[in-house]
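Hey, quick one: can you model this chain's 3D structure?
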Amino acid sequence: MGSHGYETGRLNLPFVGIPTFGKYPYVEDWDAIDADVAVLGAPFDFGTQFRAGARFGPRAIREASTLFSFGHGGAYDHEDDITYLPAETTRIVDLGDADIVHTDTVRSHANIAHGVGKILAAGALPVVLGGDHSVNIPCIDAFEADCARNGPIHIVQIDAHLDFVDERHGVRLGHGNPMRRAAEKDHVSGLTQIGIRNVSSTAKEGYDAARAMGSDILSVRQMRKLGADAVLDRIPRGVRYYLTIDIDGFDPSIAAGTGTPSHGGFYYYEVLDLLDGLIRQGRVVGLDLVEVAPDYDRTGSTATLAAQLLMNLIGRILHHR
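Sure thing. Here's the predicted structure for all 321 residues.
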């Protein structure tokens, strides 16, 4: 045995054991959630309009997250001089996945909303692993009762695409619709949509409608020109934030494993620094990360990016609370 406390017991290296998120405990009973953060998989990808495969996103992100599960008693960041996720106080659990009923969007979305509702009822922070971006719709639906008690949420979206289509051939619950559905909710006070660029999924009418319904829209180039601090100044301070991160907001050179890649995207620290600032100026009450489709990236780098970003964000959210 070594001299450090974390060197007692099993070594439990990342490639050993069952890959729950971050190798945190699995909780099967959703009525017995006792944690600060609860991770829920939403392996649903019937809302895609091009390449499917994001149903395997939660599994890939969980496996990638084991890379960051070395038992060092936390994650020390020498730039911040902060130890994030200290072992003695970090209470994170993995609830497994919402049940997905193949071809049935309404039932599958309802099952996702049920899981998020259970997390909120337990007083924990929901972290949802998609799945395509349509899984955001039941996530936001699930916040209605919570917002009635605690006030509305402001949505901050990192994405290449606006996702503000109202209806297309009768489809209202696909991965091109979630921000429109969110903007319609009384418990959503506004949206900040960052990274939106280039040949996109929404026509000009969608941009006009988004702005009319309270959205602030910035491209990657616009954010880089403004800088993170100026972008943060555009986002209301001291409010409750919900973060929705589409992995295609990142450049496909580092996130190839997604169904609708768009060149000209963000790099890792651009997003981490922006969201770190956001976490400091308000309270993040919910988070989803979507559109990881691991089979399009045989290196596994996209899933690693997703897991690394989530671990860092969760650590910062817990620390700054």
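One thing worth noting: Residues 5-320 form a domain with the Arginase; Chain A fold (CATH 3.40.800.10).
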